[in-house]
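Schema walk-through. Below, the input block comes first and the output block second. Nothing else is stored per chain. Lengths vary across the set, and this one has 428 residues.
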Amino acid sequence: MKSSKLVLSKIASMLLGGCMILSGCSGAASPNASENSAAAAAQPDAPKVEATAKIVVFQSKVEIIDQLEAAAKDYLSETGAEVEVRGTTGDDYFQQLKTGLANNQGPAVFSLAPGSEVAQLENYLADLSDLPFASDIAAGMAAVSGGKVVGIPYTVEGFGIVYNKSLLDPSSAASLETFTKMLQDQRAAGINGFGLSQESYFLIGHILNHPFAVMDDMEGYMDKLNKGEVKMAETPEFQEFAKFYEAIRDNSYNPLEVNYDKECGDFATGKTASIHQGNWSYGMFKDYDVAFEMGLMGFPIAGNEKIAVSVPTVWCVNGQASDAEAKAGKDFITWLYTSQTGKRYVTEEFGFIPIVKGMESSSLDPLSAEVSRYAAEGKTIGWATNLYPAGIVDVYLVPAAQKFFTTSMSADEFLIELDAAWAAANGR
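--- output ---
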């Protein structure tokens, strides 16, 4: 596995070049295929597709579901091929996908997190090396298995603390002590200082990334943890993390009572000074008249000032689908990357940070611009989340976090729970 520093340096150089991406699903026969031939002819850049049965695209990024459905409609108009878009939240997405694939009822196109999810399902993944734009993907960004490209990256994303610049100065929350005081001061002023939400990754999955990612050898430590050779309860970075988690529990609202919409809404309306989120959350603020400037800062464990940046998700094609369905999936992905309409959706409607040659974005939202800036300046840490044992967040970590936020469990006891969860996820 490439080191996280090497991958992040490639992200930084790519961002300076200004490229971009997404990927999706593909074609199908349409009752209006004859009518749509003229529309396809009017799009000389649209790839040629062969009519086949309607295919299904299944993905977990809820922020782009409406835009992806609109893209599928335009794809039908231009090519006569039909795509049905389905989605669900990350909480149960992976389990639903595995069940469908195991029963030979899986979608033609689906999304996975690079790393453990790709490795677990590698036998179901088609070779995408022959896609005409595959060589234009920024180096190190595609998911590769057995020397073959099996996953096309959506984009790069970054997460940390999204904060209201009129309410919070990063220097006032740069350590456990000052972060705790910030929470207390904000509460005294009638403002929630820091917010999480009840969804699995927003509750524990993402924030747990930080004690791993600030280590010099994140991958080596995680390998030892999987084998039971080290314990979080005996590791300084996790001991400090548990105290941060305790400060959040004791000085802010209970995240089990707050969903993603409310977390973002309270931030957008000034009720919360900061939230643990990434640049993807900016789309949640469009329905609000946000009256302040927002920024993105690193979670300050061990004095960290960097944000976590990586490829969050890749598109895969079902290797056990029929030849026609597999081709249809590849056709739709190719349309997204190579046609004018598809590239417009990727760069303007999905708002993704460029990572594919020829897919430039004229503007980025403020949080995506922050991710780009941090990456260009080399101020990034990796995503341990991509190396978590598959399914650990929903099945094992969430119950531990829920127990923590509903009891008076100490920081030390919480780490014992996390160690037990990690062991169970690894079959120990």
